[in-house]
Amino acid sequence: MLESGCKAVKEGMLEKRSDGLLQLWKKKRCILTEEGLLLIPPKHPPPPQQQQQPELHFSNMKTVDCVERKGKYVYFTVVMAEGKEIDFRCAQEQGWNAAITLQMVQYKNRQAILAVRSTRQKQQHLAAPHGSRLRGASNSPQPQPAAAAAAALPPSVPRSISNSLFMNLGKDPLVRWDF
């Protein structure tokens, strides 16, 4: 468990392309969590808890693009919501790009489900008369049209995720992704 309370899903070394003029590859010790990717310089001791570790949070990530497999490396780019692109590379067998993508999709799914639940609760609260409910009225939530649920999502949730998510509403509480 990390200080933030997130469980480490994967740990290891990644190489990140620097932003400088020469764009050198710099090794980073990376910790993939359920919330994002922590980047730590490899030669530094663990920082004190007060110091903030650089983190690429999934709420700010737009996509992970696999650019190419060349030699022993796989090169991939993390595209942030504001358009910034961060290039990484790792040995092909490490599978960092797939692990990051999977955790990002799971994070976005959790956020979408929370948004739908929140919208349903607000709608039930507004629809229920203040005071008492009718006898025999069901306490179960009424089905919500998928389009209205998708519109209630924050703009950071890609539409492809929200469309797939809402096709399964009411069928199974777990959202499944078929790749």
Question: Mind explaining what this structure looks like?
Answer:
The chain has 179 residues and is an alpha+beta fold. The protein has a domain of 94 residues: Pleckstrin-homology domain (PH domain)/Phosphotyrosine-binding domain (PTB) (PH-domain like), CATH 2.30.29. 26% of the residues lie in helices and 29% in strands. It is built from three helices and seven strands; from the N terminus they run βββββββααα. A seven-stranded antiparallel beta sheet has the order 4-3-2-1-7-6-5, covered by helices on one side. A hairpin with a 2-residue loop joins strand 2 and strand 3. This is Pleckstrin homology like domain family A member 1. InterPro entries: PH-like_dom_sf, PH_domain, PHLA1/2/3. It comes from Taeniopygia guttata (Zebra finch).
